[in-house]
Design brief:
Length: 279
């Protein structure tokens, strides 16, 4: 079940003060109730989207999973997970509704956090209009002066490798996990050394890839074609000839790596998954 994706799941019987009583104890509330009830009961408790728990409501027939608050802070992901049980995730945050990765989602995938939250209004609008471009990496020591429309992401950890990954359509979670494990073992590394998984936007709907990433507790970063073209890998690829894209595994590993370098060139596994390791 979807409970495997979470540290813990508790079931609490509803009463009028249930949200107030447990506010601050959980990262997300999933309410089996009308959205109006959830909104009326939680409105007086809301303080900041950066600190408040996410809230999702579902109906008894599990027809809909509706993020009420905290869409970019867990609610959209929970709604998506509930879709595995048959619910339709009704995401209304602009970027996700348009099938794009908002700034907060990018931060989570990069194992980082947003430093200046007010800036995300401008940068998420840029995401929606396809104007943001890739996340720029700056390594210090360095001082940076930015404007109010520049979102600063700070890494939660200082090291880690990037799993650049390309797959066939309909790839299975087990195939992806086996390929990652083989590539990492060759470098005497494990899943705990992975900072995030990188791939192309054209692979954004590969559920097996996302399931594998959740299994190892890693985010997935999607790179646009234009970005990957600037980081083509050393190994020849037929992707440019066949689909007009650079080789996804190496290009995404290089683009995502802190040093824009490869720790391991690409290798194809099970005729289904291609993996390169970036650093």
């Amino acid at each position: 079940g979807i409970g495997e994706n979470y540290e813990s799941v508790d079931i609490i019987e509803y009463h009028g003060d249930v949200f107030a009583e447990h506010w601050g104890e959980y990262d997300c509330f999933v309410g089996l109730m009308a959205s109006g009830i959830a909104m009326r009961k939680t409105a007086p408790l809301l303080d900041s989207k950066w600190d408040d728990p996410a809230i999702v409501v579902i109906d008894e027939a599990l027809t809909w999973a509706i993020p009420i608050t905290g869409g970019h802070h867990g609610a959209n992901q929970v709604a998506h997970d509930l879709s595995q049980l048959g619910a339709v995730p009704a995401m209304t945050t602009a970027s996700e509704a348009a099938g794009k990765q908002g700034v907060e989602s990018k931060a989570k995938a990069l194992d980082s956090h947003v430093v200046n939250g007010n800036s995300t209004v401008a940068t998420n609008l840029a995401v929606l209009n396809d104007e943001l471009g890739p996340v720029a990496r700056l390594d210090g020591p360095r001082a940076v002066l930015v404007g109010g429309d520049v979102t600063v992401l700070k890494r939660n950890a200082n090291d880690g490798i990037v799993l650049g990954t390309g797959t066939v359509s309909g790839v299975k979670k087990s195939q992806v996990l086996d390929a990652w494990q083989a590539a990492l073992e060759d470098l005497d590394l494990g899943f705990e050394d992975v900072e995030f998984v990188a791939t192309a936007t054209r692979k954004g709907d590969e559920e097996g890839l996302y399931e594998a990433a959740r299994e190892i507790d890693a985010g997935v970063v999607l790179f646009e074609k234009g970005t990957l073209e600037g980081f083509e890998g050393p190994t020849p690829s037929r992707s440019a000839e066949l689909i007009g894209w650079p080789g996804i595994a190496e290009a995404s590993a290089i683009a995502g790596g802190r040093d824009h370098d490869l720790a391991r060139e690409k290798e194809r596994f099970d005729d289904a998954v291609t993996v390169a390791v970036g650093r």
